Amino acid sequence: MTGSSLQGTDDLTVSNLFSWSGGTVDTDINLNGTTNITGNVRIDTILTNSGTMNIGADYSSDDGSLINNSTVNWTAGDIIELGSAASITNNGTFNISGNNANGINFTNTGTLSKTAGAGTTSFTGSFANSGTVNANNGLLVFNGYSQTAGLTKLAGGNIDGTGGTTNFNGGTLAGVGTYAATDLNINNGATLAPGGSPGTLNITGNLNLGSTSTTLIELGGTNQGVDYDFINVTGNVVLDGTLNVSLFGGFTGTTGNQFDIIRSGTSSMTGSFATSNFPTGYSFGSSIFSPGSVLDYRLEILGITPSGTSSGTVPSASVDEVLVLEENYDNLNIDDIIFPPDESEEEYDDQVQICT
Length: 356
Known about the structure:
The protein has 356 residues and is mainly beta. The chain has helices spanning 319-330, 334-338, and strands at residues 4-7, 12-14, 18-20, 23-26, 29-31, 34-37, 41-43, 46-49, 52-55, 59-61, 65-68, 71-74, 79-81, 87-90, 93-96, 101-102, 105-108, 111-114, 120-123, 127-129, 132-135, 139-142, 145-147, 151-155, 158-160, 166-168, 172-186, 191-194, 200-209, 214-219, 230-233, 237-239, 242-247, 258-264, 269-271, 275-277, 282-289, 295-304.
């Protein structure tokens, strides 16, 4: 289809190769084969992709919808909002390998990945994630980001969410790289898992850990951000929720090992973890430490009990119990112990042997 308009009241279904080099579609269209968009196109109704859709030029929509149930490869061109109610819903795989912009509200329940391109891909509409978002290359920019389930992972790429509110209300934020946000809010059962087993997650902005959040930290050695996970925050830090600490890569540690796992670059760290879970047999202490103009949340191994052994501690008697024992001892009649008052010595001769 080249430079023309396709209109109608019934759905159009394309099951084979569809080469689309320009024009407007004003009827619902179902694409089941391979679709190659090589020129600027526009769709103002519903486009449902169940095949492979390759976007290599501008795609614009005036209140239309793109529903992807299979694979979209976005290599070039921009996705342009001409109205105010256009939408994209990704239920499949949405690969980004160019440096481009999307102005349409985006809902992701599948997997969206920036797989190539060292530059920037921006989403200027809203972005709601309950699937998987992989920042593998370059920079993903969001004008507001919300996650209710699923995974957002930095694995070679970075994310900038400073253009709007960033709320993780479920699922996990994980990885190595930089997440920029005015306020990065981890709430409602969401999990913060820095590192790539292990590694450093940089947060440019403030970090707020909610009361139902979980923070995962792996300890695999004593080198910060290399052997053990490190959350490096340039702004303020609010601590809360649950801290889960685990050992990694065979590391066992020794008493006295210290791990500075969270940093506030503005020297503002408030709150505390409501619950802290550590490896079995390990006793940890925690403190807020100032190694200069920053504040670090520090863990220290206070003691290790080898697996399968006890601490060797014997319960001690209370002061009251000792006094009772002393009082009873003062009134003790040895004959009453060996020969009760109502029995004769002969009856016990064959049962009791007194050793001196």
